Amino acid sequence: MRIEYETQRLSKRFFMLMLVLFLVQVIFGLILALQRVDPRLLQGVENFNVARAEHLNLGILWIVSGFIGAILFIAPLLSKRDVVSPWLAKLLFYALIVIAIWNFFTLRLAQIGMAGWWEGQPWLQQGLEYLEPGRAAGILTLIGFAIFAYLVLRTFPPMREWNEIHWGLGIGVTALAVMWIFGLFFVARLDLQEYFRWFVVHYWVEGVWEVIHISIVGFLLVLLFNANVRMVGYAVFWGVTLVWLSGLIGNAHHYFWIGTPAFWQFWGSLFSALEPLPLVFCFWHIYLDAHHDRRPLANAPAFYFILGSVVLEQVGAGILGFSMTFALTNVWSHGTLITPSHAHLALFGTFGMLGLGAAYFAVASMRDIPNFDQRLGKVAFWLVFIGMLGMTFSFALGGTVQIFDYRILGLDWFGGDILRAVTPFGVLLLLFAFVFTIGAAIVAFDLFTLGARVRSPAGDAHHQHVTAKSGEPALGAVPARVPTGWARPLTGYEAAVWLLGMWIFGGIITLGLLSFNLESVRLGDPHIPYIMAGTGYPGLLLVTLLFVWRFLASLEARVRYPDNAVGAHAHHSDVGLAAGAVGT
Q: Sign of torsion, CA 20 22 23 27?
């Protein structure tokens, strides 16, 4: 695919900034993993609460940077014209750098208790989880979101010409700015402050970001597989509708234990149970689009990360989110290591992987290297994928032990009883964190140097396939043979069985958390929750790993056996066809 509009190149700087912030965030994650094993590490220099705030803040910033890069890349294709006011996009880039540097230094003031109070507002840092930056950075961020919304909406055609993807992205970029306003004032009452804090955090992640995620995934599938834009638009419409239907009242599960009225426990439990619905829909949508004509993968790393995004969204946000957002399970899991097991898999898996997938697609296009070496990208995907699954596993089992020792037995955290109990899982977490770090470093290196390794076996095989389909002889082309075994075509029935398997193990996890309400467990017998956690978490994560391996093996077989893999249409990598389809 070649760049059709020059302003698409504006996205490259945001993707490169995304990679830098990603690597810095991973470094802070390693520090946190080391401090879980030895809490004395860097005490007084980089305390745990400061490192955690930096880790969270950088995660939000690099994900937003990836969103901006992806939308600036696809907006001209959706609009059939260049981005308006490119100088504003450049200004937004520098503003994002300023915000990142400002936050990096001001968040450290939490260690000495300095918030920078003036006129009743904390201007330097405010210590609210996920919203740690102070008012100065918050106002600058709001201005940045307003600039971004202006760029996108002014680039888009008139609303009467919008399709579902336009609407998804248009609503998304507008709501980014609107929802941020709820985090720009300080309230002395903690329950009311938390109420508005979750307006930002929940509606961003489980509302606005999800809308942007579904829309970007849909359009990237159009570009990768020349999927039917009307069918993709149909999927985007229902995905966005279900996200808002379930997510608006589903926000109530954050209100269980902060002094708000008890009726939120019912409504939060009910609507939170509906939140996996759009994720199942998105999961099925990517299967259908990837298999609609059985074309070979022209850009495997891009699709690897997009698939990882959708699957880990299903597992991390859907299944693990479902298991811990009922009042009867959340009363035990809330504030324990169960929470980061869900949060890491959901946040990085859903949004981080999408940013990396979009970067692989866009950077390869901007450097005009359709036949680039894809091996490093594939290796990097598996390292970060396995590393993240392993970290989730470590958090989850450690959290199960933590619930029993801390909330059932009432052992002393600060005296070291809980620390000794969860340290083995902290060591396991550290090992998987190193695996993830290696993968992250390879991703960054590969994207920074993309184009230096121009040819790859996968690319050559794909070229042979296209040549053969065009009627020219393909030197060394593989004879027609149907792939069998693990690489056989993946049917919809089999995909549904894999999905069902994930949810069965998710059900076991949910029952394990519910079992803490049993009288025998509350009297000191941990066997039921331990057995269920020891079955549910490994089972869920293993099924997830095997399913992604199976899915990708069936797609890779299309390159090795192209004559049996392709459908009735020849493969088109020219973006003009996809862009033209979007306008219909």
A: positive
